Amino acid sequence: MAEASITDFVSIEAKVLAKAMKFANAIVEVRNTIPVLNTVKLTFGPKGLVIGATDLDILVSIEVDEIDGAGEWSTCIAARDLANVAAAAGTTPLRIAPKRVERDNGKGRQRQDRAVEITVGEASYDIPAVDAADFPELLGDRMQRIERFTNGQFPAMLKKVSNCISTKETRYYLNGINWSAKPQGKRLTATDGHRLATCRYDGNETGEAFSYILPRKTVSVLTTFLDGADIEIFSIGKGNAIVETMLDITAPAVTIRTKLIDGTYPDFDRVIPSNQNHRIDIRREEMLVALRQATAIGNWRGPAIRLHGINGRLHLETKNPDAGSAKVVTSAAWPDGMSEIGFNSRYMADMLKSCQGGEISIGMTDAGAPITLTDEDKDVIRVVMPMRV
């Protein structure tokens, strides 16, 4: 880009800029010792205004509709400052212009520094800027399209399984969602080792097998800002080689280049039960209420809860040496021949909350096997590991 001239500027509606900056600030880390990572990159040219933000793992480019502009230029400005100015502007348009300013270097000499002048009605701001050449990029060429999703399908599927992403760093490869295409089908899967959710879908344009792990932050960005959007996902290459640890995710006016978690996701098919011979059908809200009641006493701390049958009915029971015990009877039938089973009440409640519709089905094999939860969406299977009670 050429050096800033007096004719370089862009005018933009405050609400449009504020919306784009909300997206950008979801990428920018608040506390960072590298100054340029606290900024967004503003680029103006024939394609209009593009706002870039990165944390070195995700690079997002947001195309923004401007009112007017001139020149071809780029500069970096503090992300929080620009967002605050846009928020304070209300409905008044902003005029953003890069410039050079003379400053005293403290030794009796003048130096030229980069700055950005923002004008909002009668208000004006002179904000220090960083050279756009210092803004880090995630290098690579866009290659083959892996998949195309319409009408927000991809973020919607991510939401269905994201509650099972691990937050512990000991098994870093579980800190995201596994997106895979295998002979068993195309799926998005998350697990923390105690519970698991997997969502099947039809697709895969290339027909090739793959397995990628999308980081937790990337998942959050997609589900928060691209809800309802048509999405295309591309592989990244350097030279003739495919980069297995990076993807391009595009939506209208947005490109997200994200690093992936470099690791091997566990074979989750091994823990998904098959041929379960016992099943409990119950209303989701009734089961949630029963869980709350069973864990209501003594400022409940123990996660273990026991499911068993009495007189053919499903009972939930908890015991605490200090607080006593609680028993809750439900309207659901207890399967004949099924022994009692224990599980983590918090995990169970969390999985129930992620279910859709009013009715759920709990599949069981025996006391030592995981249980499954299915709802009206038959493409999603949720698994909760048993525990000893």
Automatic annotation (TrEMBL):
Keywords: Cytoplasm, DNA replication, DNA-binding, DNA-directed DNA polymerase, Nucleotidyltransferase, Transferase. InterPro entries: DNA_clamp_sf, DNA_polIII_beta, DNA_polIII_beta_C, DNA_polIII_beta_cen, DNA_polIII_beta_N. SMART domains: POL3Bc. Residues 10-95 form the DNA polymerase III beta sliding clamp N-terminal domain. Residues 154-267 form the DNA polymerase III beta sliding clamp central domain. Residues 270-388 form the DNA polymerase III beta sliding clamp C-terminal domain. It comes from the Bacteria. Its main location: cytoplasm. GO terms for molecular function: 3'-5' exonuclease activity; DNA binding; DNA-directed DNA polymerase activity. The keyword Cytoplasm applies. GO terms for biological process: DNA strand elongation involved in DNA replication. The keyword Nucleotidyltransferase applies. GO terms for cellular component: cytoplasm; DNA polymerase III complex. It is found in: Cytoplasm. It holds the Pfam family DNA_pol3_beta. Forms a ring-shaped head-to-tail homodimer around DNA. Belongs to the beta sliding clamp family. Confers DNA tethering and processivity to DNA polymerases and other proteins. Acts as a clamp, forming a ring around DNA (a reaction catalyzed by the clamp-loading complex) which diffuses in an ATP-independent manner freely and bidirectionally along dsDNA. Initially characterized for its ability to contact the catalytic subunit of DNA polymerase III (Pol III), a complex, multichain enzyme responsible for most of the replicative synthesis in bacteria; Pol III exhibits 3'-5' exonuclease proofreading activity. This is Beta sliding clamp. It comes from Rhizobium metallidurans. The lineage of its organism: Bacteria, Pseudomonadati, Pseudomonadota, Alphaproteobacteria, Hyphomicrobiales.
